[in-house]
Structure formats: C-alpha cells, structure tokens
Amino acid sequence: MSTLTKLALGAMGQLRPKPAQGNAAARIALPVPGKTGGMPLMEAIAARHSAREFSPRELPPQTLSNLLWAAFGVNRADGGRTAPSAINAQEIDVYVALPSGAYLYDAAANALQLVAGSDLRRVTGYQDFVDDAALDLVYVADHGRMKLVPAASRESYASVAAGAITQNVYLFAAGNGLATVIRAWIDRDAIANALGLGHDHQVLLSQTVGFPKS
Ligand SMILES: Cc1cc2nc3c(=O)[nH]c(=O)nc-3n(C[C@H](O)[C@H](O)[C@H](O)COP(=O)(O)O)c2cc1C
Q1: Probe ligand 1: pick from 6, 50, 155, max atoms within 8 Å of CB?
Q2: Reported pTM
Q3: Residue 125 Cα: closest atom of ligand 1
Q4: What residues are in contact with ligand 1 under a 6 Å CB criterion?
C-alpha cells in the first residue's frame, strides 16, 4: 500500500490490518537463542546503517529467536535483560508483526504469544516497505510498570529504553546479514487499536527487519 493511501486511510482512522497469511499459532516456542559467534562487535558497529529496501523472505525461526534475544532477551539468571531500563522497570514490550499474526515477545519463556490473528505489518508505519518485509517490531511502553518513575519522566525514560533495544537490533542486523530501520513515522492510534492495547500502553516506535532486497 502506498504512503499516500496510508496517510489518507490514517486520517480517516481506517488504516487496518490485512487477513493473516496461514494459520497463526496461539503460542510459538522459539528455539534456544544462539549467544556466541557472529561478527565482532566493532565490525558490527562499523557496518550499522538504516536500510529501506527489503526482501519478503521470512526469517528462519533460529534467526528470529536470536534477533529477539539480542533485542531484549533475558541474559542473566536474575532476569536481567540485554538492554537497560530505569530502575529495571523493563517497561518495554516488543511486539512482532509477522504475516501470520502479531505476537508479544515473552522474553522469560523465549516464546511468542499471539495478540492479533491478522497481518499487521502495513499498519506499523506510513512507508510502503513495512508491508512486505519479513517482520516489523513495535515497541510499546507499559506505564503500569513505571509507577516508581516520576510521571513527568516516564515517556522520556521509556523512549531511552526503547532506543537501546533498537540499537541492539541494528547491531544484530549488521552482524547477521539483515537489514533494518527504526521508524517514528507511524500511526500510533492505528497500531494500538490493531494490537488491542490498553490505556497504560504507549506505542513508541516501530522497526522493520528483514533480509536485504537482492
Ligand atoms: C527517533 C528516530 C526516528 C526515526 N524515524 C524514521 C522513520 O520514521 N522512517 C525512516 O525511514 N527512518 C527513520 N529513522 C532513521 C533515520 O532516518 C536514520 O537513522 C538516519 O537517516 C541516519 O541514517 P543511518 O541510520 O543509516 O545512520 C529514525 C531514526 C530515529 C533515531
């Protein structure tokens, strides 16, 4: 769908998901993430960049698991995560829009929990490439987990926390032959509706990930 069409539909509150491709499993157990190897960190930093042309090819389950773990997985026995959060509130939820449905990443269980049985990719942003890339991540702050943070600081702290996750994704992509771009040009109401979010949830950013267009 073109950007112009999305803008017009968005203005009318009509930017909606497509029917899902295939049957969406209610829960997907992810393979154990690989935590070794890959490109050395300094080389991944040197290669980090935004890309806006994607192949429609899906990510293999192992790559998806590794990506999500790098993004915001559990990396310590005490439940610590791969990205920081103020007072360890861990307020950012990572949603994954796949052709088969939209899922919430359950980091503790290393699983994906279905939240919407439709293809939400095109709703995750105004740019056309988001519709057909392998997946779009959506970063949502749950303000209910930030009660100990002063109210005036919650949005900025959550944005910083989401930014740290997005950079993990950038570095994973750079080190693993994937393309990605973080996006703030999104229709937050359309995404919140499609994901069925509550009042305490704030859609912050989206990030497309996929194989580069060949
Ligand atoms: C907060 C933020 C919002 C952004 N929003 C978008 C966006 O909506 N669409 C897009 O294509 N790129 C977006 N970008 C990516 C920037 O355009 C990109 O990082 C910048 O052009 C520098 O390019 P580089 O990432 O390749 O270094 C965003 C970046 C940031 C940090």
Answers
A1: 50
A2: 0.96
A3: 8
A4: 49-50, 52, 127, 181-185
36-53 as b/e: b if 16+ CB within 10 A: eebbeeeebeeeeeebee
* Tens of pLDDT, residues 16-59: 998 888 778 899 999 999 999 889 999 999 999 999 999 999 99
Residue whose CA lies nearest to ligand 1 atom number 7: 183
